[in-house]
């Protein structure tokens, strides 16, 4: 049993190492002169590479893509679209809080084609979301579950997802917490279409406000107005992070409780 667990841990670590090699290797080969094309190219290429790596790992484990929830069926596209809209709405609510309670205002950047920017940004962010979900909520999540159970797998992959964004405290309070939501969605939906859509939707809202400039163009920007408001941006941000963390943990525990209840 111990030997099997050590082997499985080694597989997960190797999977993530190969992911980093693919991402950094492909990233050096693709020119980044056009942000949306750069994001779509990296996301698409690495996603295909990771699916190939996953196939090899699953073949060694005598499993298949269906066992990992990586199969595509007729309902996948519908779930992707619905979760995309849900992710946009959910993240948009955070911005509404800033607009309501802080001196933040929206400034129009005056771009030439809003529709083109939205569609190209969506393509880029969908590819990147697919890449990250395959990397952290695909093979690695399921394999870790066999070692430390679903709770441990969710929290560990979420931590790894945060650290992948940078070895900084903000990575733990930001991406790692979002990772809890994505993992719950992956388990709840028994696949990756929902977390990919939700992930891309949340990132798209950020991108449209110029916060994903490496991979997408913005059409608006935030500025500070000279007005009296209940809170400042620095005051409200910790509360939103705490809310997101509590929500993530709560959803994880609700899912695990329902899973245990249905199994008994």
TrEMBL record:
Keyword Transmembrane helix (UniProt): yes
Which residues span the membrane?
12-30, 36-58, 78-101, 113-131, 152-185, 239-257
**Gene Ontology biological process terms, A to Z:** CAAX-box protein maturation
Sequence ranges assigned to domain CAAX prenyl protease 2/Lysostaphin resistance protein A-like in this UniProt record: 116-205
A single GO molecular function, which one? endopeptidase activity
Is Transmembrane one of the keywords? Answer: yes
Record's keyword terms, sorted: Membrane, Transmembrane, Transmembrane helix
Q: Any idea what this protein is called?
A: CAAX prenyl protease 2/Lysostaphin resistance protein A-like domain-containing protein
Query: Which species is this UniProt entry from?
Result: Paraglaciecola arctica BSs20135
